[in-house]
């Protein structure tokens, strides 16, 4: 795993752990969310853990890679802030991992840094690229930018969001 910003790490599947040494945001539906909730195939949309399941040290989101933004829901990013910001503010290290660490997890890392420092999309992107160039290389090569497009289109709304820190 790579520390992209102080106390904010990005990693692929091989960095998946569940322990209290580092607070981890698991983005893969397969296998992280499936294993945490306990299902195969697809989960009923009405299941209480359809979008995420959390513990004190880990949160498992039900996300997959996709090239369009339509799949993404703003609740995921609000919950991401609810869960991550209080832990970050307590000095915890935050690992955000997905399958390949080339699309979803770096997008979330970029967004977290931007929320903390109230950066514009352009500032956040310009700061992220030299620190983690794989993000852009992958997005351009494979067009898997649904998460990035969604974030860009909801940037102001999400940067203005005040996390609900009750769950920390
Ligand atoms: Zn995981």
Can you characterise this structure?
By secondary structure, this protein is an alpha/beta fold. It has a single domain (2-161), classed as Protein-Tyrosine Phosphatase, Chain A, CATH 3.90.190.10. It is 43% helix and 16% strand. It contains seven helices and six strands, in the order βββαββαβααααα. The chain has helices at residues 29-37, 74-89, 104-117, 121-131, 134-142, 146-153, 155-159; strands at 2-5, 8-11, 23-28, 52-54, 58-63, 94-97. Strands 1-2-6-3-5-4 form a six-stranded mixed β-sheet. Strand 1 and strand 2 form a beta hairpin. It is globular, with a radius of gyration of 15 Å. The model has no long low-confidence stretch (mean pLDDT 91).
């Amino acid at each position: 795993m790579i520390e992209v910003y102080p106390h904010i790490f990005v990693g692929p599947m091989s960095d998946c752990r569940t322990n209290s040494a580092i607070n981890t945001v698991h983005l893969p539906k397969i296998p992280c969310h499936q294993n945490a909730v306990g299902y195969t195939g697809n989960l009923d949309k009405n299941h209480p853990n359809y979008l995420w399941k959390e513990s004190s040290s880990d949160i498992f989101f039900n996300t997959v890679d996709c090239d369009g933004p339509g799949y993404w829901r703003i609740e995921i990013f609000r919950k991401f802030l609810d869960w991550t910001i209080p832990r970050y503010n307590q000095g915890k290290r935050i690992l955000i991992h997905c399958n390949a660490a080339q699309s979803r997890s770096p997008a979330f890392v970029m967004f977290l840094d931007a929320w903390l420092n109230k950066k514009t999309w352009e500032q956040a992107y310009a700061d992220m690229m030299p620190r983690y160039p794989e993000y852009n290389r992958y997005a351009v090569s494979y067009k898997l930018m649904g998460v990035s497009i969604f974030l860009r289109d909801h940037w102001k709304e999400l940067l203005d969001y005040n996390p609900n820190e009750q769950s920390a």
